[in-house]
# Entry
Amino acid sequence: MNKPLRRIAIFCGLLVLTLLIRDNWLQYVQADQLKDDPKNRRVAIARYATPRGDIIVDGKAITGHATTEGDFKYKRTYKDGAMWAPVTGFVSQAYGANQLESIEDGILTGDDDRLFFRNTLDMITGEPKEGGNVVTTLNAAAQKAAYEGLAAQGGKGAVAAIEPSTGKILALASYPSYDPSTIAGSSTSDEEAWKKLQKNENPDDPMLNRALREVYPPGSTFKVVTAAAALENGLYTDADSKTNSPLPWTMPGTTTELENEGNIPCKDATLRVALQYSCNTVFGKIGSDLGNDKMLEEAKKFGFTEEQFTPVRSSASVFSDDMNQSQTALSSIGQFNTAATPLQMAMVASAVANDGELMKPYMVDELQAPNLDPVEKTEPEPMSRPLSAKNAQILQSMMETVVSDGTGQNAQINGVTVGGKTGTAQHGVDNSENPYAWFLSYAKTDEGSPVAVAVVVEDEDAVRDDISGGGLAAPIAKSVMEAVIDSKR
# Structure
């Protein structure tokens, strides 16, 4: 080969090599960046070219699809969308996706790597591409009871319900809510609906998942954790012996007396009576006597200080690690810096009901291929043991007294043993706003404990004592527990 031809051959070879390098760079190194580029409409067009798979509750789809005009052929629809929004989240042609719709997007669109063989077979046989399904652990009757109970109060609030023996989430309601169908497309009406849902336009913030993402002072419901800490650390060993609880009781390092709500029998009260009447002095002194480290250790065993993934993320509940005795006393009655999500407080009730073992909460039971073959199955997983079985049963008996003869009587169910704890948490500077009304509970039948529930109601006409939780939140918890029990009959 003469010299000019050799130079041309080398130059052409270098061009081919450059093209190969560039092609591999684009296809492998920059693939994800190009795929996620908002200007890349091909990805979005392909995403909405086929129907998504469904999110399933009790064997029925709570999602669907509709055809649209333009580049995007299909958009998501929702059945009872506002009720299920805290579970499903949304998927929108204009605004992306969140919660289950985002986390399980690969299965729902059919793009998950685990569906590769199925997709390859469909391509060979000419079958259209399909999305798989997400089968949830939710109980439709419990969810309806939770959502309608919150709606009837007319304010804001949330409910979380768990099956104690497995950790399955049975209900996850937030109010006010929104219908994801209204923002699923890319039209002018979807844009207007989106703007109306934003917090700067709507102070009630209907897109906030209060069951998972909002942390509230738990008030007296946290006394269940404090009672557990007292039993586990041997400060007290049973429910019916008198405690060392003077009245009045001055918080250490201060001249401030911790007050009880009303004229209630708190002086040297037993743990049972102290929980029945919700004695601040008894549980505040327990926290002070145990100290910050031991209270923090017990709170962590229940799940405090860490985010939970259900797989939707739940905000971390708060119990501080740098408090003095007085601050620890206030935190031990659910005030000061203590804050919890409704899911967290349902976990507290669940662990007590499950004889001291806390199961990891989860809301996805199974992922399915388009032909309904299982792709992944969630197995129940122990998370921690906040109490021994013996101490859990002592605490159960105390919580059951709260419902049978205390502030939680509105949660009583005929023929069912119910344990619970009411709470009213301070809200606003110097408690200037209406308090948060709380109730956490569990139901116990001959077959075991099918459900544990936490309810918080915001901004209601609540009086400032624990009867608020019993009056506002307990009836909602009762209806959720009844729904679960009836569904199992």
